[in-house]
Amino acid sequence: MPDIDSLMEEWPPEMEEALNNLRLPNEDIDMSLEQYAKLACTLLDIPVHNTKNGKNMIESMHVFFTLYSVFKENVYF
User: Fold this and answer.
1) Which of 68, 47, 43, 69 is nearest to 58 (CA)?
2) 54: alpha, beta or left? (left if phi > 0; alpha if psi -120 to 50)
3) Which of these, 51, 67, 62, 49, lies nearest to 5 by C-alpha position?
4) Phi-psi category of 29—alpha, beta or left, where left has phi over 0 and alpha has psi -120 to 50?
5) Which of 8, 20, 3 has its CA nearest to residue 72?
6) For FRET with 3, which of 23, 41, 70, 73 sits at 20 to 30 Å CA-CA?
7) 69 near 77, Cβ under 8 Å?
8) What is the distance between the terminal CA atoms of the chain, rounded to a whole angstrom?
9) What is the pTM of this model?
10) Is residue 19 a contact partner of residue 43, using CB atoms and an 8 Å limit?
11) Backbone φ, ψ for residue 37 (5° rounding)
12) What are 28-72's pLDDT values in tens digits?
């Protein structure tokens, strides 16, 4: 898993512009919670590792929520 500092790095200007012009999916999208979580992790460059049963999202979600917590505590945002 990537460390939080690398995930907090500034994105290239092209990515910032693309996100400003892109409509991200909301809660009304027709997909399972697991699929939605995988999509969110993918958008933030958090790896999702498949296991034998394909259901292990714990480590990825831990990184996701740690990133969220660090982001919310950051005075620059």
Assistant:
1) 47
2) left
3) 67
4) beta
5) 8
6) 23
7) no
8) 24
9) 0.75
10) no
11) -65, -40
12) 889 888 888 888 898 888 988 776 665 578 889 999 999 999 989
